[in-house]
Amino acid sequence: MELRSAAQSLQPQPRRDRRRRNRGQQRESEPVSDTSPTSAPLSPNADATMQRIEVIAQSLEQVSIAREPSASATPSLQPGPGTGTSIGSPRPRPKRGNGKDEKVPPSKGSGGIPSVSEAYLQASNVVSQPLGEPQNLLVVIDLNGTLVYRPSRTAPRKFLTRPHAPLFLKYCLDTFTVVIWSSARPENVKAMCEAILPPALRRRVVAIWGRDKFNLTPEDYNLRVQCYKRLDKIWSDPVIAASHPAYLSGGRWDQTNTVLIDDSLEKARSEPHNLIEVPEWLGDLNEADEILPQVHDHLNYLSMHSNVSACLRANPFKPRIGYRRATAAASR
User: Fold this and answer.
1) pTM of the model as a whole
2) What is the rounded CA–CA span in Å between residue 154 and residue 99?
3) Which helix (H) or strand (E) covers residue 140, if one does?
4) Whether residue 91 has pLDDT greater than 80
5) Do residues 303 and 134 make contact, with C-beta atoms less than 8 angstroms apart?
6) Which of 23, 116, 238, 248 is deepest in the core (most CB within 10 A)?
7) Would you list the domain boundaries of the chain?
8) According to the model, what pLDDT value does residue 287 have?
9) Which CATH number fits domain 133-330: 3.40.190.10, 3.10.20.30, 3.40.50.720, 3.40.50.1000?
10) What residues contact 224, with CB distance under 8 A and at least 6 apart?
């Protein structure tokens, strides 16, 4: 049934039995009705429809109020990550104009939204010193939007590979220490890595992390939640820590020697000056500016400085327009 206008919905609605009783009198005595839209009567089922709309609106309001359970409430039973829909009232999923779910902030149980520590800011607010020889870097690389593109969330294992991605990964593995960290589910991360990395190179990746490494609650795990890549989680992991080439003599990964490569500045909120932010790749196989070769050059530049966070704070990565044309001309 279609409601004709907002003005019509405000008109008094005659009861059905009264209209039946007086139908004959109305036909004889009433003047011809005004044909303007505001005076036309609603269809017979409008009253019931308006009641249903009011009930739905009240339900939505109750859901939005009950986003988080109270501290004293009995916790709802929820399955572990990746086991299906959680039991209990889920948080609402805001919609974008194209109908796709917007990302929602993580709950307090998932750590909330991180902030930059004062100690981190102070350590990055210095002058990075040039080195006589390159230092080894810990390079943490994202997948979706950075190296690959997944056209559909309903087919997460079907994706395109960004130009130069396999060669770029080989260069990183040959030169630095590499961790892959994606907010995709572990099974999808595994599929992507198997497609873009041959087994011999994949075994050289220190750690391949997925959605299960963000400390999300079961509810947040199954929602489209904004994930944050807190680098202190990387630095404190025993396996990754032991991959430092000078680990036995006290060498550790920290903000002076770690680079996060991602297409989202928001994900690096806790350590923003360790990020090489690349433009999100949306599947253009003829990418004009060849981003990954430029990232290759910037990594080499960072490796020649004593403090990555200070160096990136002073000289953030900025993609160069017309990079392909410039390099092609130089090679002639």
Assistant:
1) 0.69
2) 14
3) strand 138-141
4) no
5) yes
6) 116
7) 133-330
8) 87
9) 3.40.50.1000
10) 93, 101, 102, 103, 104
